[in-house]
């Protein structure tokens, strides 16, 4: 293995230390919108596509937004150890495919996981160096009105997501950073700063 000095002398790029970012926050808080902007603005970072048993929503793309699968397929993947983490959220299952994440990190690309709290806890155990970021709403009432106006779920499902949100908001002290999504541009800017600050760290 050539030393860093030898690599520089050969004019090859030194290997990047890659980062695994976990972005969590209650349903409806705007995680997806914020992450989409980060992917546009920041080079060398990609978002993992999860598997889910949840039905596809209007406007979602198969294998781009999620790998939509049956419960049977999901549990086969789980038994084969193909998930880095997985969780049940309200009545559906969600899991992060392990091989893609490991390959991306080993190829020098940072990875973002957009997952819920139980999954974030599993990642903390497996990858203590992962950077955990919690996106908060400015208030619970604001979250409620955002979920209601998004109207992608039935009223009963919105209620169960709001119940879940209460639990998630109580778990935010497990995270390294909190970004409050009051003003969208500021929230995007803050997450971008976190990504660059973590890339500039000399130690973990
Ligand atoms: P939605 O149904 O709104 O797309 O997602 C519901 C929740 O599941 C969100 O909090 C989302 O971040 C989370 N989620 C999506 N993919 C995964 C995953 O692979 N693992 C875990 N643990 N949560 C996920």
Can you offer a commentary on this structure?
This protein has 204 residues and is of the alpha/beta class. It has a domain at 4-48 and 109-199: P-loop containing nucleotide triphosphate hydrolases (Rossmann fold), CATH 3.40.50.300. 43% of the residues lie in helices and 21% in strands. The protein has a five-stranded parallel beta sheet, with helices on both faces. Helix 2 (31-41) crosses helix 8 (184-199) and helix 6 packs antiparallel against helix 7 (155-170). The longest helix has 16 residues, at 155-170. The two termini are 23 Å apart. The model has no long low-confidence stretch (mean pLDDT 92). Bound molecules: guanosine-5'-monophosphate (5GP). Guanosine-5'-monophosphate binds at residues 27, 50, 54, 85, 87, 89, 94-96, 114-116, 118-119. The site of guanosine-5'-monophosphate (5GP) has 14 residues, from strand 5, strand 6 and helix 5.
